[in-house]
Each structure stands twice: as C-alpha cells, then as structure tokens.
Amino acid sequence: MSHKLWILISIALFSLSSLAQADDTIQVQASGTAQGVPDTIQFSLWVEAEGGKLSPLKTRADQITETILRDLQQRDVAREDMSSYQLRIQPQYERHNNQTRQKGFLVSRQIQITLRNTDDFDHLIDFALAQGVTRVGQINYIIADSSELAQQALLNAVDEAHNKAQLMAKHSNRELGDIVNIRELSEGGGPGLFMRAESSAINLSEPGQQEVTARIEVTFRLQ
C-alpha cells in the first residue's frame, strides 16, 4: 500500500472519529432569574404656560424650571440626573367666522429627573406642583446598578442547564461530561439579559420587585 494511501486513510479515520466525537454531545437551553427591589425613580415634570404673547410665556416657564432645578440641587440630585433642555412652542389656533386664526402660544418644558433618594419623591412632587408644574408622568422604578442581578441570573441559568442535561443523560444511560460550548440567547433581537417589573398588588405606591432573566444555550459532552 502506498504512502499516500495510508495518509488518506488516516485522514478519513480521524475525520470520522472527530465527527462521532462532535455528535456525542447534548444541547440544552435554559433560563435563570434574579430579583431585586428598585432603588431609583425616573420621572418627568412638565411646565406649561399658555397665552397671547410668546416672550412672557417662555420667561414664566423658565422661571418655574429654574426654581425646581434649584430645589433638586438642594436635595443633592446630581446635575447628570436632571435634564430640562426640551422646550416646545406650539402656536394655538381658533375658528372664527369660518376662518382659522392664531390666538396665542403654548410653551412647555419637560424636566426629566432620576431620583436616587426615593424618600424625597412625594415632597418633590408637592413642591413642583405648588410652583406651577402642570403634569407629572413617565414614572419608572428601576435598579440603578443591576450588574450583580445579571450575574446571578446567568449563574442560575447555568445551574438549570446542568440539571436539565443531567436528567436527560441519566435517562439515556449516559454520564454527563464537561461543557463544550455555552452562549447567551437573545430575546427578540436584544441582549441575552432582559428585565421586567413585578408591581405590588397591595399598595399602588410600592415599587415591587424587578426581575432579571438570562437565557443561555449549553452543549455538554456525553460519556
């Protein structure tokens, strides 16, 4: 038998061995969760003024905004946790004798706030409304730093994957080996980690808990 033939046979046997080895695995998908209580509130305030002349309306909106920002600074809210640059000017119209004519303006400014001391929330809203704020909304309870929850969710997902694979291997009369490959799975095109809030059913003011979920796909070797 020629030397080249031996080489071809060796390559073929190695390929078959590698293929069999690659197929001798088990693949599972698993998810893990971790929960934490939100410690930060994000919300928006709107300052609105309506009238016939633009300049005094803008001046009033700016004065109210300045008063609120000064109060936030006194409450030790960091500058990066408040934003008030969104100014909107809308002409107002009315119908008269089948004609449309401008009757004035609506000036509004949105103040976006991240409040880390949540105990100040009620007092801040009372103060803002007393100064002339017309609307409060977009209130969200969040966890400022969810990295520890994300790590715990991943660890829980790995444990769940191992348990599932162990059960499947046991009922196949096989032994579970080492992990060959592991990857995070995306949720609707997003990251492998996603969060959802669970609100309290007892008190509408309670933030409830926020849940972080990790989804993974793990390939184990079978022995």
Please write out the topology.
Elements lengths: L2 H21 L1 E12 L3 E12 L2 H21 L7 E15 L2 E17 L5 H11 L1 E10 L4 H24 L5 E9 L8 E6 L10 E14 L1
Antiparallel strand pairs: 1-8, 2-4, 2-5, 3-4, 6-8, 7-8
Helix pairs in contact: 2-3
Keywords: Signal
Protein name: SIMPL domain-containing protein
Organism: Aliidiomarina minuta
Brief overview:
InterPro entries: 26kDa_periplasmic_antigen, SIMPL/DUF541, TonB_box_CS. This protein is of the alpha+beta class and 223 residues long.
Overview of the molecule:
The chain has 223 residues and is of the alpha+beta class. It folds into 2 domains: 24-37 and 146-222, Translation Initiation Factor IF3 (2-Layer Sandwich), CATH 3.30.110; 40-142, Alpha-Beta Plaits (2-Layer Sandwich). 35% of the residues lie in helices and 43% in strands. It is built from 4 helices and 8 strands; from the N terminus they run H-E-E-H-E-E-H-E-H-E-E-E. The protein has helices at 3-23, 54-74, 121-131, 147-170, and strands at 25-36, 40-51, 82-96, 99-115, 133-142, 176-184, 193-198, 209-222. The strands form 2 sheets. Strands 1, 6, 7 and 8 form a 4-stranded antiparallel sheet that branches. Helix 2 runs antiparallel to helix 3. It is elongated and about 85 Å long. The relative contact order is 0.22.
Give the overall average pLDDT.
Answer: 82
**Secondary structure category:** alpha+beta
What CATH architecture of the largest domain would you give? Answer: 2-Layer Sandwich
Q: How many strand units?
A: 8
Tell me the series of helices and strands, N- to C-terminal: HEEHEEHEHEEE
CATH class of the largest domain: Alpha Beta
- Outline, from the CA principal axes? elongated
CATH topology of the largest domain: Alpha-Beta Plaits
What is the name of the CATH superfamily of the largest domain?
A: Protein of unknown function (DUF541), domain 2
User: What share of the residues does DSSP label as strand, in percent?
Assistant: 35-45%
Helix content: 25-40%
Distance between the termini: 36 Å
The Cα radius of gyration reads 30 Å
Unreliable segments (pLDDT under 50, ≥5 consecutive)? 5-9, 11-21, 199-204
Largest sheet: 4 strands, antiparallel
Helix count equals 4
- The number of distinct structural domains comes to 2
